[in-house]
Recover the amino acids of this structure.
């Protein structure tokens, strides 16, 4: 089934008591954060911007690092708040039906909306912290941005002098195996996998759909554009996430 949120909702959806959510950039666009791969996405409009989040370029080129810090500074100045989509997932948790919230996003908006941090699995890390690529020391993003504002365009680690980077997973950087294990466990142990605002093109996140299907779960895809997994989904919704998601997760 493809298109709008059905009324009434399918019985298998309202009856689901263990829903694993996989969220992507699309859920945050209503909060003013642009997506990456959509028609107006950051990388669609400026393919060169992808270098800012590619580890090999970041390590090798001080100019890329300086541009990346300016990008973080500009994003930090944005008035970004959770939206109705984030709130709907908080409601799902309060119903006692959320198995886990696996997110590809690094913006922290799920937690800001009220999601229990223990329920949120951030497979691509967080933009609110900074990590040294050498000694792994961590500081807050705000502390690093204060140094940029004070005249350090590419602030080094204060502990060892190494390269600092946002605590996000860049292209070419290894994922945290414990985090991936937690995401896989959530996909194996659910009645429904609800994929929201994700292109389902980036692995291993996209592969969570395969895991869920193999273990008998139903799949719901809510995304503006077609995904490679639409054909295996039990329900595909093309409506905007803000209005659609509260209806999809309404208590049965």
């Amino acid at each position: 089934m493809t298109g709008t949120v059905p009324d009434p909702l399918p019985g298998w959806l309202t009856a689901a008591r263990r829903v694993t959510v996989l969220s992507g950039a699309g859920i945050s666009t209503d909060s003013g954060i642009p997506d990456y791969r959509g028609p107006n996405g950051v990388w669609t409009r400026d393919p060169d911007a992808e270098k800012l989040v590619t580890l090999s370029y970041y390590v090798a080129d001080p100019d890329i690092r300086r541009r990346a810090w300016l990008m973080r500074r500009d994003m930090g100045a944005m008035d970004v708040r959770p939206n109705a989509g984030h709130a709907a997932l908080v409601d799902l948790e309060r119903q006692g039906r959320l198995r886990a919230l696996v997110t590809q996003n690094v913006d922290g908006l799920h937690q800001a909306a009220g999601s229990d941090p223990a329920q949120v699995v951030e497979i691509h890390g967080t933009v609110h912290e900074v990590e040294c690529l050498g000694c792994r020391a961590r500081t807050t993003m705000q502390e690093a941005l204060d140094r940029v504002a004070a005249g350090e365009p590419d602030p080094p680690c204060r502990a060892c002098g190494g390269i600092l980077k946002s605590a996000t997973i860049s292209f070419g950087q290894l994922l945290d195996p414990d985090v991936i294990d937690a995401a896989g466990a959530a996909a194996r142990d659910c009645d429904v996998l609800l994929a929201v605002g994700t292109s389902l093109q980036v692995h291993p996140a996209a592969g969570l759909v395969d895991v869920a299907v193999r273990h008998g779960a139903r799949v719901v895809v809510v995304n503006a554009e077609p995904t490679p997994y639409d054909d295996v989904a039990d329900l595909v919704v093309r409506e905007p996430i803000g209005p659609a998601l509260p209806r999809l997760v309404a208590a049965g």
